[in-house]
Amino acid sequence: MILFFAFCVIWYSVSRGDKDPFKPEIFINLYYFIMVVSGPIVIYLFFPDIYQDGLYAEVLELLSMSLLCMNIGFILSGYCFNKPRVFSKELVDTQGILRLAQIFLLVGLFSGVFFYLRAGNIPIISDNKEVARVMALSVSGNGYFLYLMTLVMPAVSLWAINCFSDKKNKSVYFIVVLATIAGLFLTGTGSRRYIIWIYVYVLVVYHYIVRPLPLSKFFAVGIGAFVFVVLFELFRNPFSDTTADFYTAVLYRLVIFSSNLEKVFSAFYYGGEFFYGKTFFMDILTVLPGKQDDYQSWLKEYVGLSFEGFGIPPTMAGDFYINFGMPGVIVLSLAFGFFVRSVYFFLVVNRFSYYSVFAYCLLLEVFVKMLTSGLSAQSISLIWVALILAVVRYFSPFLRKSQ
């Protein structure tokens, strides 16, 4: 019943305003439902015994409530901030953008070389890719090099802005090639998300600066991205039971996050104490000297799980539940929806500029990652994005608005 009301609210939320595929009402909702909320439904349809033995009915209720409240937050933000779109008359120093993109790219490439040298291999071409991926990041200090390595992503975004803002020379093919090379360089770490998000960055920039992306093409790209994720999983873990064939890998991808949530939810449902916001700072504390467990690794140990790989991502709803129970899921999901929709309004709708498009690219990625891992696991990412945006603004290649 809660899920039905959530769909009604989603329909109302999406029907208001334009059909921008990258606005939260469409992009965030699609990702959250397909990758997280649909999980218990898929388990009920294809694995009924597992559904009955676990707390998946309660998990579906939890996720439905989170989805509903998030969309109420979208709507409330839409009512609070509903001024018409105003484009800023911002001049662009294209050479400044290009220089900054080149600096980011060079820092990212050199950091990546150090990352691979310190790891002793390139995980994606190792025999056991999953173990190599974990071992590479277990090298002391390699996490810092990985963050610096990811600077190639905003570099591609800035380069795309530089090219697409030039009416005489929109070098789409060059940007696609650059994005592919940068994405493959990052994919060497064993993670697939980097190359996907680099292409998303390019699409967002193209959509807002050159030509709006039709919903039909957006859905086609989304399906292609999902197929790529499944194929990458088959390549990375060929001997796992979850990748026995393409069909099994698809089902696994649809249920993994809700399955993780069910394990976490069960641990707290049967008497676990809530943390009242303490987990929000766990990852931030890992920058302190000495060994500090990150949030997801700590959570994996807390719920008694043991498997190859990193920790367990509890989803946004699970993260909120761990800290404040169901009231936290309701209030914080609503706050999340309100905040994300407000960011979209201030960056895209009412303050449209090249800098705001760049900022929205980076923030959209963090918001989407929060859906599957929670706020606690993305606290460092939020700080990192804030630092990048501050650096870009301080060394701003974007000239002041014309007088």
TrEMBL record:
The answer, when asked if Transmembrane helix is one of the entry's keywords, is yes
Q: From which domain of life does this come?
A: Bacteria
Q: Which residues cross the membrane?
A: 26-47, 59-79, 99-119, 131-159, 171-187, 194-210, 216-235, 247-270, 320-340, 352-371, 377-395
Ordered alphabetically, the record's keywords are: Membrane, Transmembrane, Transmembrane helix
Q: What is this protein called?
A: Oligosaccharide repeat unit polymerase
